[in-house]
Structure formats: structure tokens, C-alpha cells
């Protein structure tokens, strides 16, 4: 029996992929947030150890540096999904809906290509690090492969988010606003301080 790819099946597939990418981007954001807290606690512990006991914790600088790279890459997809990147809309503010759509499609295509290139190169770095068992230089020689692999995963996730948004913009009419919305509450208009 042959399976026919109908419009309904395609829409179900696209909806599930969209849901999965949004959840993965959010999970990457949560993981980045937790890792940021871990880095802050590690830094605080190192400062306390250095100032109270005159002995820094070995490997903290190298470990926190490796974690910071992972934090940045894991947070990129959610930042793109929420539209939290810096936007300079001087040129697009005067454009009509059709021209805005063309400009957005162009920027998303460039962003997807750039992030896919970054993801590809980061994946190669992770594979090479695994191949020769790359370790951090310093007092604590921990393996770097897991950090590079997580950074590559975050870069691929970001590339997928750019591609997801690109597909949405390609199939949506120009008059429909498809810009991502942030979940932050608006400032109160009555001027009262919270």
C-alpha cells in the first residue's frame, strides 16, 4: 500500500515539527539559564575560596569559560523564536507589507545560512575534539568534547529556528503579521511604580 502525502498529512507533520522545535528551543533556554546559575555559583565559590582560604578552586576559570560558550549557543534559538535579538527598523519602518515580507525573508535566509555554517563548523570541532580526546589546559584537564557537542546542538537548533521562521514567512500572505511576540508584560500606563 502506498502512502500518499496529502495536504492534511503534510500540515500535521509541519505542525508537529513546529511544536518540537519550539519546545527544544525553550528547553535550550532553560538549560542555558540553569548553566548560567551554575557558572555564577562556581564564580562565587572560587572568590570565597580565594579570599578566605587563599586557595582558588582549580579549573574554575577554564570550566566557566567552556560553560559560557554552551550558554550562548543554547540560548540563541529561543532568542530568535521570541524576537529578542536587536532590531534596527529605520529602513523597514517605511516599507509596505510586501517589501517588509521580502526583507524579512532575506534576513531569515541569511540568518539560517549563517547559523547552519556555524553549526556545521562547530560540529566538526566537536568531532575533532572527540577524535583526539581534547582536554582543557589548566589545573583541571577536563574533556572539551561535551561542551563543544552542546554548543553544536545549540547552533543547529538556532539554524532550525531560522528555517522554521523562514518557512512560516514564505507561506503566509504579506498582510498577515507573523512577527514573534515576547511574553513580557507591558509597562503600566498610569505612571505608577510597581
Strand-pairing-aware structural class: mainly alpha
Straight-line distance between termini: 64 Å
| Low-confidence parts | 184-194
Approximate strand percentage? under 5%
Q: What is the number of helices?
A: 4
Categorize the overall geometry: elongated
Quick check: average pLDDT?
88
Q: What can you see in these coordinates?
A:
The structure is a single chain. This protein is an all-alpha fold and 194 residues long. It has one domain. It contains four helices and no strands. Helix 1 runs antiparallel to helix 4 and helix 3 runs antiparallel to helix 4. The termini are far apart.
Brief characterization of the structure:
This protein has 194 residues and is mainly alpha-helical. The protein contains four helices and no strands.
Outline the fold blueprint:
Layout: H1 7-53, H2 60-82, H3 97-131, H4 145-171
Helix pairs in contact: 1-2, 1-4, 2-4, 3-4
Features:
single chain, 194 residues, mainly alpha, 4 helices, 68% helix, 0% strand, elongated, disordered C terminus
